[in-house]
Amino acid sequence: MTNVLVTGGAGYIGSHACKVLAQAGYTPVTVDNLSTGWRDAVQFGPFEQADLLDREALDRIFGKYSPVAVMHFAALSDVAESARDPGRYWRVNVGGSLNLAEAAVAAECRHFVFSSTCATYGDQDGVLLDEETEQRPINAYGASKRAVEAMLQNFETVYGLKSVIFRYFNVAGASPDGDVGEHHRPETHLIPLMLDAIDGKRPALTIFGEDYETPDGTCIRDYVHVMDLVDAHLKGLEWLRDERGSRVFNLGTGSGFSVKQVVEHSAGVTNREVPIDKGPRRAGDAVALVSGSRRAGTELGWTPERSTLDRMIGDAWRWHQSGSYEK
Ligand code: UDP
After folding, report:
1. Is 133 helix (H, G, I), strand (E, B) or coil?
2. Distance in angstroms (rounded) separating the CA atoms of residues 217 and 213
3. What pLDDT digit, counting tens, does each position of 57-109 carry?
4. How far is residue 323's CA from residue 326's CA, in Å, rounded to a whole number?
5. pLDDT band, very low/low/confident/very high, at 184 (cuts 50, 70, 90)
6. What pLDDT, on the 0 to 100 scale, is given for residue 325?
7. What are phi and psi of 264, to 5 degrees?
8. β-strands 47-49, 257-258: how paired?
């Protein structure tokens, strides 16, 4: 049995990763403290409830499963919260990752796949971002992820820990099978909040700022289907297994959509109106985050074939309507 330790396996992206790992013949071992994850999202392998700040628990879990690799999804990821409470982001995201990397090294598990973010680039005047773009995070979320990237570089030099670092753009959609999907508590992300508003579960979607320097005044993001994203992780695992060394990859499509464009698409896909409120800018938001890299395509052979807005919103809407996320 080939075990892969999946931190955050009870969360949105982690649960989808467990699904594709299991389909590919791996045993995904979920490590999650359930602070934001869901026990019933763990469907594809064993579950260990543990906090990444608990080093003893991590050592025990590495000892029990002898994983060949770690996929590290567990993190706090609310940009606005990180702008208000940076200490929490440094403690959980950086402290937790440090413990995990040290436990991996101690257990001689030398392959590490890390969820980083386009938020490490910060605001770059709308330029397309590639892996060589200077990282200038403008919030503690991005800063904490950049710090972990630097830590992983040090750990490779000194301990030989090889890492694939994925800088995600905006992840959306759900498994088309309806078994797992997006469910945050509290929800802060654009598409699920909008589907709630469409469905009458919230009075309206608040658009955070219409005075940005973009064609329609709203922020621009590059959206990636969660199933495409987790496919890249499988390829990252193979990359490490084939001893191709540490590497950073952007995971985005290269196409940017404004908040208003996402709203229009959602109205079209669901055939419903989107009730809208206008709000002020949200602290910590960059104007535009769009990938300009083909590296994941040329080197990993990754194609984000499901990442059209219609498909992401359609899959999210099906998941939303199934009611599973309300459990
Ligand atoms: N957004 C918005 N209203 C909301 C939630 C998000 O206008 O209720 C905007 C947000 O300002 C950003 C974009 O939608 O420009 C995507 O935000 P999200 O929180 O989904 O992802 P992030 O880019 O912060 O990772």
Report:
1. coil
2. 6
3. 999 999 999 999 999 999 999 988 998 999 999 999 999 999 999 999 999 99
4. 6
5. confident
6. 62
7. -60, -45
8. unpaired
Cα–Cα distance measured from residue 145 to residue 116, given in angstroms and rounded to the nearest whole number: 6
Instruction: Determine which residue's CA is closest to atom 23 belonging to ligand 1.
Output: 170
**E strand residue ranges, 8-67:** 27-32, 47-49
**Domains, in order of start, for the chain:** 3-171+223-251 (3.40.50.720), 190-221+254-326 (3.90.25.10)
Of 131, 309, 118, nearest to 225 (Cα)? 309
Find, among 130, 114, 131, 121, the residue nearest to 166 by Cα: 114
Answer whether 129's CB lies under 8 Å from 117's CB.
no
This model's pTM is above 0.85: yes
Task: Provide the pLDDT for residue 125.
Answer: 82
Q: Give residue 90's Cα distance to chain centre.
A: 17
Taking the C-alpha atoms of residue 106 and residue 277, their distance in angstroms, rounded to an integer, is 51
Residue from 251, 246, 244, 249 nearest 230 by CA: 251
| Ligand 1, atom nearest to 220 Cα | 15
The residue whose C-alpha atom lies closest to atom 19 belonging to ligand 1 is 189
pLDDT digits (tens, 9 = 90+) for 107-159: 999 999 999 999 999 998 888 999 999 999 999 999 999 999 999 999 999 99
Q: Is 26 a catalytic residue?
A: no
Comparison of pLDDT for 147 and 326, the residue scoring more: 147
Ligand 1 pocket check: which of 13, 81, 187, 190 to mutate, most ligand atoms within 8 Å of Cβ? 190
